[in-house]
Amino acid sequence: MRRAKLNAILVVMLLAGPVAVFAQSSLDPGQLPKSTTFYLAWHGTPSIDARRANSLLATWDDADFEPVRAAIIEAMMSRPADSAKAKAALTREELSQYALLLDNEIVFGYIVNPNQVKSSEAGQESQKNSWNGMFLVYDHTGKEAALARLLLQARMNEKDPPKISAATIAGISAIKIERKDGATFWADDGKYTLVASEPAVFEKISAWTKHATPEAATLSQTAAYREAGGLLKGGLMEFFFHFPNIIDRNWDTSVMGFRLRPLIQSLKLQAVHSIAGRLALDGARTRFQGAILGDTSTGSFFDIWDEGGTSPSSWQFITANTVSYQEWRVNLLGIYALIKRALQSTVGAGQPSPMDFLETQAATRLGMPLPDAIGLFSGEFATLQSSSTLDSAKQVYVVGIREKVATLKLLRAGLAERVTAERSEGDTTFLRMSEGGMASAAGTASRKYYHLAVTPGVIVASARDESVREILASAKTTHGENTLVPPAWQKAREQFPKTINGLSFFDFQRIDWTAAKERWIAESRKAPTSKGTQPEAARDAFANALKDLNPRVFPRHLHMTASASWKDARGMHVDGWIE
User: What is the pTM of this model?
Assistant: First the structure.
C-alpha cells in the first residue's frame, strides 16, 4: 500500500489499541545493517497488568474516556463530504480488528544506498537512479487473517489497481507490487512479514530477521549508535536517526539563487551525529527520554541552545495556585550568529548578504545595532497558568532581560505604534500594547490589548492587567528561594540534572475539570470554520466528545507531568514523564 496510507492506518491502530498481551521483543534494532540511517521500533502492546498500573494507559482504557477515543478516530478518518476522491472509510469494527496488529512487534526504517554517489560525482545520473531505502518488518504471529484483511481494504481503496507479479529475492518467494511511483516487494519469511522497495534492502532485512548479519556490519558497531547508549534499550518504542556523511550529499545546486553547499557547511550540520529516544512504562509513569547528540563545541549547530543554569528567573513567579509552568532558554546571539554565517555563505566573497540589509534596517528603526538589541534579552521564555479552568486570558508570559532602561528604549522604538499607555511604579514600568484591531460594521475599532510589566530582570505579559499584577505581587513575597513551589514539583526538579535549560510542570489535580469542560464547549461553538471541510468534521467530532465526556476521568488517574532539558558535551537531552 502507499506509504502515506500505511502511516495513517498505523496511527489509527495505535490510538484504538485495546488491552492485549505483551509481545516479547525478538527484533533487536541494534543488529540492523550499519547502513541503516533511521528506524522506529514498536515492541508490542503492554500486558493487561502493565496497562492497569500505568496512569496514562488507565486513562485511555477508562470507559469514561470512550467519547474522546471515538472522536479521535472519527476526526482522523473523516473526509470532506464533497470530495471527488472520497472512498469507503474503515468501520469501527474493522479498526478494532486491525488494532490487534499492534500486539506484535513492528520495525520500519531506512537503509542508505550502498553505492551512494559522492556529491562531486553526482549529476543527472543520481536523479535517474532514485533510491527508496524504506523497509518494514512485522511479526505476524497469530495476526495473519487481520493483516490480509487490512491489505485487501487498502487495495480496494486504490483508484489505479497496481500490477502484481511473483518474484524471488534472496531465495524467498515474494510479491512484486508495481505502481506509477515505483515497486514494492512483499513476502512472508518465517514468522515475519517483510516489505521493501529495493531488492538490496529486502536482502538485508531478511538476513537481519535470521540473525545472519555479521556483528562487525551491524548498527550497534557504529560510533553514533554506541553514543546513544541507554536511550535505545527497552521500553514500548524507540527511534534512532543517524546523520552519516551529510556533507557528502549532492549539495552542488542552488535554490532561489542560494548556493546549498556553502550553506550546509556554514551550519555545521555534520556536528549532529544522531537523534535518539524511547518511550517506556515505569509503573504509574509513562516516560520519554530523547537526545540530539553530537559535537557541541562553539560554532556548531548546538549554539542555538543555552548552557542553562540551576534556577530560572521565572521560577520566582510560581505559587501554590500555579497549575502549569513551562520554561526554556535559548542562545539568542548564537542563533543570530548561525543565521548570519549561513546567509553570508550563500553569496560570493565581499558581496552583501540578506543579513546586511536586515541589520541596516533594524539599526535605523531600533536606534541600536541588531546584535546589541538581541543581547538585551537573556534568552529565557516562560509561561505560567494559574486558572483552574485553563483560561488562556489568564496565562502569563515571562521574558528574561539584562538591562531595563535599554530594553524600554528598544520597546518604544520597535513597537511605538502599538504602545497605548505607559506608567511607572517603583522599579517597574507598565505598558499597554495593542495587538491590532478590525473595523466593525458601525465603523468602530475592536482591539485586543496585552499588558506588560518591565522590571529590572524580566518582562511579564498577559492579556489581563490584574494577572500581571498578581504574579508580580507573589514574587515579592518569595525573597530568594521560592517556598511556594508545590512539594511534588520540588521533588521532581531534584530528579533532573542540576544545570538545565528547560523545565515544565502540569498539575492535573488542580484543574476544575467540570468548569474547564463548560468553557471548552462554549469556545468550540464560537470557532469559525468553512462548511464541508475536514477541520469542521474534526471540530464537530471533538465538540460531541466534550458533551459526552465525564471530566472526572482525568483527576481519577492523572496527577502531574514533569520534564526538563539540558545541554552537555554530548548534546541536547530531554527527560520527562506523565503520572
Answer: 0.85
* 399's grid cell: 521574558
Q: Is 508 left (phi over 0), alpha (psi -120 to 50) or beta?
A: alpha
CA 189 → CA 44, 100, 138, 173, 194, distances in Å? 19, 21, 10, 9, 7
Residue labelled with grid coordinates 530560572: 312
Give pLDDT tens digits along the chain (579 positions): 444 444 444 444 444 444 333 445 578 999 999 999 999 999 988 888 888 999 999 998 899 988 887 777 666 655 554 444 444 555 666 666 677 788 899 999 999 987 765 544 444 444 445 889 999 999 999 988 888 888 877 777 777 788 889 999 989 999 999 888 889 999 999 999 999 999 999 999 999 999 998 999 999 999 999 999 888 877 899 999 998 666 556 666 666 566 667 777 777 778 899 999 999 999 999 999 999 999 998 888 899 999 999 989 999 999 888 999 999 999 999 999 988 888 887 776 777 788 888 899 989 989 899 999 999 999 999 999 999 999 988 999 999 999 999 999 999 998 888 899 999 999 999 999 997 654 444 444 446 889 999 999 999 999 999 999 999 988 866 556 788 899 999 999 999 999 999 999 999 999 999 999 888 888 777 765 555 445 565 666 667 777 888 989 999 999 999 999 999 999 999 999 999
Strand pairing partners for 377? 401
Helical H segments across 370-512, by residue range: 370-375, 404-414, 465-476, 487-493
Which letter, b or e, does each residue of 510-520 get, where b requires 16 or more Cβ atoms within 10 Å of its Cβ? Answer: bbbbeebbeeb
Rounded Cα distance, 41 and 27, in Å: 9
DSSP percent split of the chain into helix, strand, coil, nearest 5: 40, 30, 35
DSSP state letter for 497: -
CB atoms closer than 10 angstroms to residue 530: 8
| Angle between helix 92-99 and helix 66-77 axes, rounded to 10 deg | 100
Q: Write the CA distances from 499 to 275, 295, 311, 482, integer angstroms.
A: 21, 19, 8, 18
Q: Strand locations in 201-252, DSSP E?
A: 237-242
**Opening angle at CA 240, ends 310 and 35, nearest 5:** 140
Grid cell of 504 as nine digits:
515544565
Please name which of 8, 153, 23 lies closest in space to residue 101, comparing C-alpha atoms.
23
DSSP string of 326-394, one letter each residue: EEEEB-HHHHHHHHHHHHHHTS-TT---HHHHHHHHHHHHHSS-HHHHHHTEEEEEEEEE--TT--GGG
Candidates 305, 366, 301, 302; CA nearest to 332 is 305
Smallest CA-to-CA distance from 38 within 105, 109, 135 is with 109
